[in-house]
Each structure stands twice: as C-alpha cells, then as structure tokens.
UniProtKB/TrEMBL annotation:
Coiled coil: none annotated. Signal peptide: none annotated. Pfam families: Leu_Phe_trans. It is found in: Cytoplasm. Keywords: Acyltransferase, Cytoplasm, Transferase. Its EC number is 2.3.2.6. This is Leucyl/phenylalanyl-tRNA--protein transferase. It is an enzyme of class 2 (transferase). It comes from Sphingomonas plantiphila.
C-alpha cells in the first residue's frame, strides 16, 4: 500500500469526503494511536454487487431470521464495537480520531451502518461511507457466528435496491473472498470509482461545497421495501426487512 500526506492528529469531514472521492482513505496504526495516515492500495478489493456468493447455509441463516437486521439505528455502537479488541483481533486501526469523524459524517448523511441483533444485544454489523453510487465498506464485526456474513449480505441487498454500483472493500481477506470479493489494480478501481461517482460528485476534490449533499444513490430504499411488505404507512415505525426478502434479492439476477 502507499501512504500519502503527513500523519495527522485530526480529520476534517470535508477533507475525508474529498479523499474518498480520489480513492484514498485514513487509518491508524492501532486503537490508541493519536494520529492517522492516508492509504491508497495498489491492489483494491471490491465486491461486485451481482457477484455475491450466497451459500446454501448462509441463505438458510438469512431466510430463517436468526438475527434481526437493521440499518442506521445504532451507528455509534457499531463503530465502537468494530474498534474493540477481540480474541481473534487484539488491536484495530480505528482510533478516536477516525471514530469522531465518521460519527460526524453519519450525522450528515454520508456514513451508514448495518446492525445484527440477537434480541436486544448487538452481535455484529458493519459501517461505511456512501458517495455517489459508491459505498466504501470500512469495518465489520461479529460477536456471534455468521453475524458479519449476514450483515454484509444485507448490505449487498440494500445497495442493489438503492442503485449503488460499487462496493469497495479496501483490502482482500479470505472471509471477503469467500463472499465474492476480488482484487483489482488501482487503475481499474479508479475507473470504476469515477463511473460510480459521476460528474456531480467527481468534482468533490475541487469543490468542497459539493460535500454538503448526501449520496444520490438511496441507502434507505430497502427500508421502504420493508414498509411496503409489512403494509406500514408513515409515520409508522418501519419494521426490519425480513430475511426471506433479503435472500430473494440476493438471488435475483441484474
């Protein structure tokens, strides 16, 4: 990977948006590191939205509603859980600087989370950033078997319904590869990113004012599908989309 720009002890939300629009993202060396650095991988992991690998066992887990899946209901709890150490992950790259800027971006409509619940207990999820028709997955976490797999499956279904074109996974892992993620060269990734951002947001790097508008793709489209499925009408609280619907969306061809 390539580090660019000096290390910083603070992050401006508009700077972060411009960086993502150029294919660059922040990381910290470890949880307690007070500073961040910028990363632009030479090989980028993406998960093609029409190439998600839905195994028979995962489909059964999703369709059986083993977890209650929500979106944007506990963003701060998800990022805090992602930042925690665990037996299989002693340290993380999410420091308080990154945590703060993403909470700010969530308040502005750019950062989103998917949550998996076992009763009232948060047992997994993920968070990321939406720009144009691109979604940049930042981190996912699991405190129960298959919770992170269900979260990313629900994310893929949500992005497909919402008109997204690119799911950026940053770095490839065996876990992501088993779900359909692939590595592509930086040049190919930047071409896909440019197409996903479009002309309106492609100018984000030069026009900070554009950073005041949320993504033109619709992260909440799946929630309205859930409302239609349940017959709920605004302002009624919309229940989570059922696992059967998510599984069906994942098996539909584009």
């Amino acid at each position: 990977m390539t580090r660019v720009t000096p290390r910083s002890s603070d992050l401006d939300p508009d700077l972060v948006l411009r960086a993502y629009a150029m294919g660059v993202f922040p990381m910290a060396e470890h949880r307690d590191d007070p500073s961040v650095f910028w990363v632009e991988p030479r090989q980028r992991a993406i998960l093609p939205l029409d190439g998600f690998h839905l195994s028979r066992s995962l489909r059964k887990t999703i369709a059986g509603d083993r977890f209650r899946v929500t979106a944007d209901t506990a963003f701060e709890a998800v990022i805090a859980l992602c930042a925690e150490s665990a037996p299989d992950r002693k340290d993380t790259w999410i420091n308080p600087v990154i945590e703060r800027v993403f909470v700010s971006l969530h308040a502005r409509g750019f950062a989103h989370s998917v949550e998996c619940w076992d009763g009232d207990r948060l047992v997994g999820g993920l968070y990321g950033l939406a720009l144009g028709r691109a979604f940049f997955g930042e981190s996912m976490v699991s405190r129960a078997r298959d919770a992170s797999k269900v979260a990313i499956a629900a994310l893929v279904a949500r992005l497909r319904v919402g008109g997204f074109a690119l799911l950026d996974c940053q770095f490839i892992t065996d876990h992501l590869a088993s779900l359909g993620a692939v590595e592509i060269p930086r040049e190919d990734y930047l071409a896909l990113l440019s197409d996903a951002l479009g002309e309106g947001i492609a100018g984000l790097g030069a026009a900070a004012g554009a950073a005041s508008c949320p993504s033109p793709a619709d992260f909440g489209a799946l929630d309205r599908l859930g409302a239609a499925e349940s017959g709920a009408l605004p302002p009624t609280s919309v229940p989570p989309v059922s696992g059967k619907v998510i599984a069906q969306l994942l098996t539909q061809t584009s």
